## 1
Amino acid sequence: MHPHMKEILLDEQQIKERVLQLGQQITRDYQGQNILMVGILKGAMIFLADLVRNIDVPTSFDFMAVSSYGAGAVSSGAVRILKDLDKSIDGRHVIIVEDIVDTGLTLQYLVENMKARGPASLKICTLLDKPSRRKVDVPVDYNGFSIPDEFVVGYGLDYNERYRNLPYIAVLKPEIYRS
Ligand SMILES: O=P(O)(O)OC[C@H]1O[C@H](OP(=O)(O)OP(=O)(O)O)[C@H](O)[C@@H]1O
Ligand code: HPA
């Protein structure tokens, strides 16, 4: 385990099995349709890459990058688009793919923003959910794992842009987080 980690919350095998289940569930739910997966950069990139390889209906993907104005790990609710979608989502069956839902503020903004673009349907898929941190209600359709209120990194999730490449999801040592 990386020396900056306190404990591994979800190991590679647990993540792999759950991502397979989510892909199978999405495959069942979207029979006969084409999906557009919208990955929210950068955190969702690794999850999306693994998820789409477990989906067996025609799937394309696009990406959005957003930034909250809050500093560090704290979400403020104000969201700015850093990179918009490449193409129209009008009439498409869209699934927003996130790595984590925390306060829900990022997703609340994204859902409103994307609904206004006229998709045929819009669902949310997240690898992790921290329900105890929620400030606004967001309708999560596919959730990998509900986790306790601890700051986690790995498998796409970062602290100050580090640790995204860890193959597992771990709790960062508090002394690293505070320093
Ligand atoms: O529910 P919320 O409180 O809004 O928090 C969740 C958001 O925060 C993280 O993104 P971050 O801004 O850290 O960007 P990143 O994906 O590039 O790491 C995560 O990827 C979600 O988009
Ligand atoms: O626990 C977390 N880890 C990384 N990024 C995050 N964004 C919200 N919560 C988290």
Note: The pocket of hypoxanthine (ligand 2) is lined by residues 100, 102, 151-153, 157 (CB under 6 Å).
## 2
Amino acid sequence: MLAVVPPPVTVRVPAKVNLHLGVGDARDDGYHELTTVFQALSLVDEVTVAASEEPGIEVSGEGENTVPRGEANLAWRAANELANYVGRTGDEPKVRVVIRKGIPVAGGMAGGSADAAATLVGLAALWDLDIARDELAEIAAKLGSDVPFALSGGTALGTGRGEELVPVLCRHTFHWVLAFATKGLSTPRVFGELDRLRDNGEPPRVGSHAPLLEALASGDPRQLAMLLGNDLQAAAVSLRPSLRRTLRAGVDAGALAGMVSGSGPTCAFLCEDEDAAVDVAAQLAGTGVCRTVRVAHGPVHGARIVGGEDSTRPTPPQVHA
Ligand SMILES: C[C@](O)(CO)[C@H](O)COP(=O)(O)OP(=O)(O)OC[C@H]1O[C@@H](n2ccc(N)nc2=O)[C@H](O)[C@@H]1O
Ligand SMILES: Nc1ncnc2c1ncn2[C@@H]1O[C@H](COP(=O)(O)OP(=O)(O)OP(=O)(O)O)[C@@H](O)[C@H]1O
């Protein structure tokens, strides 16, 4: 009898920017306590998962030569974690994972995390799993601090090491310009640099995130621009001083504000509207302060099957006593 092979599943998954990134002190487990507001942007990776007798990873697109193909790929780790969770033990998962990258690698936009989240959603459908989004989020959190947000998307407040999420009201579409750097920055190195700077007399910390939540609800990009803040920016700039020039160039080109995205080195510029973003992108591209420039908008939804049904069960409503 012939086995039925399910058709491949393609998932589109967004990059993130941290509109507010407050970093607390280092914990005993080496992580830092965060208070962050994530926004998912229309800059995406696409991941196709397919049943295959030749398991493995293929990568093309943005930074393709710097992405590991084997077990070190976060998407492959996601496939293994999900297989273990649902009891598909034994050999490595018999799947081929094809990643088309649009998100810069080691760029502070959670590209690897995005691919892991997309793989979880894709395999849940490919394997026809009866699994709730909440269960996927738990597996996601084991893979990395940013993976749960890549699943949920939108705009969300993240606490803990960034993996505990609450959705945030955001009435408006915001327009961004992203400046990609020639070379990535290592996330642990940037956190380490912040610890070092703080030992030597503390760069000022971002304040409360509450006013930023109000600006998001109001939908006014000018108000939001004044409230963007990232504790990791000083550390990223300390490791890569040329980012200062990039940040200045974006604002000189007409952006409302510029910031380092997460652990950098990508710089994100908030613009008044879509036309302004196109103008800023064109000007910035001519200045030679970055490798390449993209426009994007947010918020957008999290990892989602392209042209298909999501097989994961919605989480049942929580009842609190
Ligand atoms: C900078 C952010 O992108 C902001 O959203 C995230 O905090 C980083 O998330 P991520 O890349 O998914 O990070 P993980 O893979 O969980 O951790 C990588 C390393 O970053 C550092 N790390 C990460 C998250 C956190 N809250 N504190 C940390 O100190 C730790 O050295 C950790 O070993
Ligand atoms: N699928 C993947 N895509 C990109 N990088 C990956 C992937 N899997 C593993 N990596 C490795 O992880 C490192 C960090 O990549 P990633 O693009 O996730 O960084 P990042 O965007 O700075 O992460 P974050 O914003 O979550 O801190 C890369 O240098 C690469 O070696």
Note: Confidence is low (pLDDT under 50) at residues 317-321.
